[in-house]
Write a structure and sequence with these properties.
By secondary structure, the chain is of the alpha/beta class. 48% of the residues lie in helices and 10% in strands. Strands 3-2-1-4-5-6 form a six-stranded parallel sheet. Helix 9 runs parallel beside helix 10 (221-229). The longest helix has 18 residues, at 23-40.
Length: 254
């Protein structure tokens, strides 16, 4: 993937759906909350995986609530920050978080073997590795999965709040991750499964943006959306990067 004579100094990974198999748990939590809310309103159309990828994947929790509600032409008050009121934006988001927290308490977060293989190979080649996530639960998820020590830098939802970093598709979180790694976007590959994250990587001027389409929810619909958002490569298995990226990256470092 890298052009001859160029050096890939770092690869930064989104967390959910790329490194950790936590996406399905997030989807289930959102579905429980939104389906109950929609049923109460007499809306017979449930929350779907397509809705997940289109509106809530890769963005801060309350932004996800707002985006999904807007897709159904529903306008709700924000509510108190700690509200559990099912008729407010914060209430719906907090209910979702409670369900996901309960899942974390009961489960060890699994991870993707292809991502781990790639990370270990990158580290063996001296390529820095970072992870980012819009989730404020990221540290807990990475700890549960047993991978938190594999990364040279991490930026998550808590960091974004403290630093007032704009959410994806703005590239601010990705640029901050590169900064913490001591590299520039031009020396860095971004790996993302969310359309918003791919768009952020493209907007941030990263050397390459790799979109991963693990779920294959509707033929090539998600893959097409990733390409349209700016992915240079769309794959279903990160093993391809071992063949396409690392040989050229390692040659450039000699």
């Amino acid at each position: 993937m890298a052009r001859p004579g160029t050096t890939i100094k770092a690869v930064i990974f989104d967390m959910d759906g790329v490194v950790t198999k936590s996406m399905r748990a997030h989807f289930a939590a959102w579905k429980d909350v939104f389906d109950a809310f929609l049923k109460q309103r007499g809306d017979a159309k449930p929350f779907t995986m397509e809705d997940y990828f289109a509106y809530v994947d890769g963005v801060p929790r309350f932004d996800g609530v707002r985006r999904f509600l807007a897709s159904r032409s529903i306008d709700l008050p924000e509510g108190a920050p700690d509200s559990l009121d099912g008729d407010t934006v914060h209430g719906l988001g907090n209910r979702k978080n409670m369900r996901f927290q309960a899942w974390l308490e009961a489960n060890t977060v699994p991870k993707y073997k292809d991502a781990l293989d790639l990370i270990h190979t990158l580290r063996g080649q001296g390529v820095k590795v970072g992870v980012f996530s819009a989730s404020r639960n990221a540290e807990r998820v990475l700890t549960s999965a047993g991978v938190i020590n594999l990364f040279d830098a991490k930026v998550d939802g808590s960091d974004a709040a403290k630093l007032a970093l704009a959410p994806k598709p703005d590239p601010a979180m990705l640029i901050e991750t590169a900064k913490r790694l001591g590299v520039t976007p031009g020396d860095t590959i971004v790996v993302e499964d969310a359309v918003s994250g791919v768009a952020a990587g493209a907007a941030g001027g990263f050397r390459h943006v790799v979109g991963i389409d693990r779920e294959q929810i509707d033929a090539d619909t998600h893959a097409q959306a990733l390409r349209a958002a700016g992915a240079d490569v769309v794959t279903r298995d990160l093993g391809c990067i071992l063949n396409l990226c690392l040989p050229k990256a390692s040659e450039a470092q000699r």
